[in-house]
Amino acid sequence: MDKFGFFKVAVATPVVAVGDPRENVRRITALAREAAQRGAELVVFPELSMVGYTAGDLMLQRTLLDAVDEALRQLADASLEIPLTIVVGAPLRHGASLYDTAVVIAQGQVQGVVPKSHVFEGEGATEKRLFTSGFSIDNDVISAGGDMVPFGAFQTFAVNGVEVGIELSHDLWALVPNSSLLAQNGAKIICNLAAVMEGAAQYNFLQQQILSQSARTISGYVYASAGSGESTTNGVFGGSALIAENGKLLMEGERFLMQPQLIVADIDTDRLDYERRRNPMFREPGTIDKSSIVTIDFPESDEERELDREIDPMPFIPHEERARWERCQEVFQIQVQGLVHRLTHTRARTAVIGISGGLDSTLALLVMVRAFDVMQRDRKEIIGVTMPGFGTTGRTYNNALKMMNGLGITVHEIPIRKACEQHFEDIGLDASDRSAAYENSQARERTQILMDLANKQNGLVVGTGDLSELALGWATYNGDHMSMYGVNATVPKTLVRHVVAWCAENEQDEEIRRTLFDVIETPVSPELLPADEQGEIAQKTEDLVGPYELHDFFLHHFISGGACPAKILYMAEEAFCGTYDRETILKWLRTFFRRFFSQQFKRSALPDGPRTGRISLSPRGDWEMPSDMLSAAWLEEIDKL
Length: 641
Hints:
With 641 residues, this protein is of the alpha/beta class. It has 20 helices and 22 strands. It is elongated and about 100 Å long.
């Protein structure tokens, strides 16, 4: 396991030689060597892969069982030169019974054996005629490869410090799967050695089950099923190979191959630890007695390993178009439902919003329009206010008017220049001053107008600030920071663009659609400083605080994964390779942590708003942090990078 908690695992699907352990061990050894060369610390083979799952009643005979024992000895000897842990399936005798087992081999010896708990019968399987359930076996010993080794259904293996549990095939389908019990007792990686015959539509169900179980157990799930070479007398084995992590598919093999296959992926065990610390279920004592843990450690290699894992540069946005539009639709519906309930509860006669022509106010306006349509109320009861100031450009001003008029709401235009100039005179601010007082007074003037207008019209002010702005504190305290209900508060900036685009695609009016797409293309800006000589936006937010795609990436991994700055940098370099260099990422990473800590006081006074995703910075149970929390430890770590 590397310093950031990435644990590299492999699933190997050999072409099995049914009934020939000597040939199988040769093929298994070759795949294990390849897995080690790719940096894997653990490799998992299918159920009964030493003989072939379809060997049938011959597995009861001494000749084959003796050959299995000799083959296990050969594999153990070969493992002396293979620096990883091998998990392979084999039938083993114990007393008068035969068990379907997973044999764990490393460092020249068999480290332990795990028996199958839930022996299956049906769909061409004859397991109950051959094997005995090992569910009740705990802290026993069994002969394997010529040695007496630990034998138990719930023993685990600490491979380079990562606790690994094992279940076999249909143990996953039990009412209470073994993996659930193993995870509750500390196993972070679950290996499943399986042999499942293919059937139409079965694979999708299998994949869903594995993803669901990895999410339920907050674990890495490594699944290896029998494939080519197995007898097709009663069915076909497709060789399913899957590696999942906490509900996410990391790597998937190809089925129905006629040659060996090896897939490799890195499981983020640090993130699993973080997620478990956040989950009360993992603070409760396990429901089974804590079985033995076999420790297997390998010397650390000086070679830098390649990361076998895709790091998504846009973690809030699904890649596939259909999934992305579904996410946008769901987020939008949550926003609408939240606003509908708040308007109904407060009996507000109107809803008031400031429209700048930017992304956030556009999304909030679209939410309001849909909410009023749902309530079957007149859109004219929505009061949209454009408040041109010193930095307002023609592009944003015109887009604001086009949207409001096109959507059929009540439009107010209230310029703020004179009011701000009077205020500057009142507080003694020089007209040439461009400090925070100059900028923030404009934001507070706009908020005062909206609040007072809402009071006058018996209305509710709808806030527009998004999650990314809240993380960075990119809002004027008691200015655009404040509202009576903030519909965008849990929507990150990178996702706001896509939700607005989804609304545009579903908009019937062509003029409004064109306006929405122009808003999406407009640079993000608070427009508090005067425009440039060409009348274009001079104050671009991303020039000042950094690219939102980087900040959303930092936010996701810091809050959702509990990642330290060094790990975030490592992942960002992988995700944004060719887009941002290390120096640029470090610069904005420091900005993120400095601002995230220093601006908590703004989040401590947030208005209400609906939770639309996993990450929320609401102080009401979602994110608790003192406003005077020091950032020294995080910034010192960044300074050392």
